[in-house]
Amino acid sequence: AYNNGTVLDTSTNLMWAAKDNGSNINWATAKSYCENYRGGGYSDWRMPTLYELAGLYDATKTYKSDCGYDAHLTELIHHTCPFPWASVTHGSEAAYYDHFNNCTSWTPRSNATRLRALPVRSGK
Fold it and tell me: Closest by alpha carbon to 3, among 45, 39, 42?
């Protein structure tokens, strides 16, 4: 973890925002949030893939998210709710990763309930 609001995963060389957006957000707004994020002084942030989000899951680590669900990932990345949107879509639906149950779920892109944006970038 860096003191500039970012966390580098040295196994994947991905840099993550140290926290999600902090409130309910629909897919389009989450995508825009990720693309416009400026953490650590970088401007090449994006919405993560399902594979990247799945790579954060760690059954050996647990903390209570702000919305009451357990989050199973490093405490260096703070989820206010452990359901971050992923970049993949199909029709009017989009996927999100469930860091509580360790699975992928689909919901209408317009849904915002308990969903969050978690920006990522290549750590280079």
Answer: 39
Q: pTM for the full model?
A: 0.95
Question: Could you give the residue ranges of the DSSP H alpha helices within the chain?
Answer: 27-36, 50-54
Kindly state the tokens that stand for 120. 């990522």
Please report the sign of the dihedral spanned by the C-alpha atoms of residue 64, residue 51, residue 2, residue 58: positive
**Which residues sit opposite 105 in a β-bridge?**
96
Residue-wise pLDDT for 16-51, tens only, equals: 999 999 999 999 999 999 999 999 999 999 999 999
pLDDT surpassing 90 at residue 99:
yes
Q: Taking phi first (over 0 means left), then psi (-120 to 50 degrees means alpha), and beta for anything else, what does residue 76 get?
A: alpha
Instruction: Please tell me the distance from the alpha carbon of residue 118 to that of residue 84, in angstroms, as a whole number.
Output: 6
